[in-house]
Sequence to fold (668 residues):
Amino acid sequence: MDECGLLNVFECGTIPIEIWVSDGLRWLVANYRPFFQALKWPVELVLRNFEWALGSVPPTLMLAVFALAAWQIAGVRLMLGVAGSLLFIGFLGVWPETMTTLSVVFTSLVLCLVIGLPLGIWAARSNRFYALARPVLDGMQTIPAFVYLVPIVMLFGIGNVPGVIVTIVFALPPVIRLTNLGIRQVPNDVIEAMLAFGASERQLLWKAQLPLAMPSIMAGINQTLMMSLSMVVIASMIAVGGLGQMVLRGIGRLDMGIATVGGLGIVMLAIVLDRLTQSIAQSSQRRRGASWRERGPAGLFLKWMGKIRTR
Amino acid sequence: MPNATIECRGVWKIFGDREKEALAAVRSREIGKSQVLDEFGCVVGVRDVSFDVAEGEIFCIMGLSGSGKSTLIRHVNRLIDPSAGEILVEGVAVNTLAPEALRELRSRKIGMVFQNMALLPHRTVLDNVALGLELRGVDRTERNATAVNTLERVELAGWGDRYPDELSGGMKQRVGLARALAADPHILLMDEPFSALDPLIRRELQGEFMTLASQMNKTTLFITHDLDEAIRIGHRIAVMKDGALVQIGTPEDIVTNPKDDYVADFVAGISRLNLVTAQKIMEPPEAYTTQHGAIDEKVCPRASPDDSLDRLTDLAVGSPHPILVIADGRTVGIVTGRTLLRGIQGNRSGDGSQATT
Fold:
């Protein structure tokens, strides 16, 4: 049965993809490693800043900042939820790990936006580009992360910066897709009216298409955040620190306790980030009511300042 | 017409990938809309349309949905490029304008009102009205002042801070109208502006629009599928069918003298009382006197040739005698009760005077 013949054509030979890829990668590493190392620089810059900002502020103060932000965005209920979740994280004893994870997640979010928003706008304007981009985006979301972990380690090394890059590969598609979708969904009559009143392409984009696509773009941001969080355990295999590292250590040592603590931290963080971005999305749709100056902690503060001045 | 504000010269629009071939075929052979669709997969939107709109005129284009009237109006500010033909706005050929000049034309000279309003939902009413000025680069204080003034004109003073979804349909269309008027353009393009409104609001807005139009002396191209509206508003009416203009004329022309059965069907239900004048229905005085003998001119009510049937009816009700139509102190015609009734009814049984014999 295992001889090459009409009945078993697959024994007659195989496509040597394995060798091609290995050789290709070796060639890339040998010739272009400095180029890829240079790509790390902007990632590193953003990451260092987030690590510094999140790591140097005392936990209690940080918690207060998050809680006040939640109050400002969505009101007292969300503030209580956020404060509760963060307190729980703190008393799990994983505050520093959470801040490390958060800085990786925030860094990939910022870079996803920087890369994804322009590409999404381009995709909305050019059917040809969108047709080319779609299979690539599908691939980015479906290829198991373990597959591209190897080349990324070989080209970028290990640590938090390559971790961010792995996360970007996985979490970038929703920003592009939903920006594209949001712009394409802007009603044709609105575009026609803008043009009839003399709008240029740029005015059309900034004054009509982007504002009307905002809810969709915010949904993309929310998804990107959630996907970044789901990458933290996988990324910890290339020495990214934080909550993912705890889960990985738990798996390695068959230590259910430490894995559970890390996992709980990721879940709480995910809930906090999800609720926060969803409230931002809602408030971008709801334009009525008090402006940010009149509500939340900023409102109280400004009122208080006003009282002092009138006194 | 040298002083025409809008001129269309042989405008064609064919939609589809094989536009050029289809156009050549339609021009060389006489083939119809469905044949073009079968042969080339193209849709004929506008078919060899030419017309002029004079300064200050309200020109109505009337047709059923799918007759190409919305496509036609979009050629004037070049939201659609024609397949062939030329459109001149104040003497400038619109189809050859560079992008910058085209934007300038759109924001300064032409205001447009849409059937579905097409307001920007994320902007306040004031910012919507100021849109044209904003796109042109007018600074905020100036454009807001203009927008506030324009909102007053359409009787929406004080609504500037609201959002479009807080307004009723009629109010939204007032905002649409204010947006078109804010930049003080010479030309208004109205694409079925009142069709989506309920009848009472529609009449109210028609009235207000007519007042505004006569005050501001805008040249207006007005699209409608409603003949009553066209007659009420338009100085001249063009009837459109399958992309081509069937007849152009004053409301009276269209109603009293429809060019073919299609137009005749349209005008069949229209009240002629205020459209038709005495000179259209009067008989020559000689014909009357040979039939009925001399008339006692002293007891007869008198009318002028421009008096409407409505006015003649009033006169006829007040007197048993025929009405004399007097021009320059001379009797030019006679209107009897019978001719008047036939006149109100229309030319259904041929010449109105036949019935009297």
Remarks:
- Residues 16 and 42 of chain B are 5 Å apart (CA to CA).
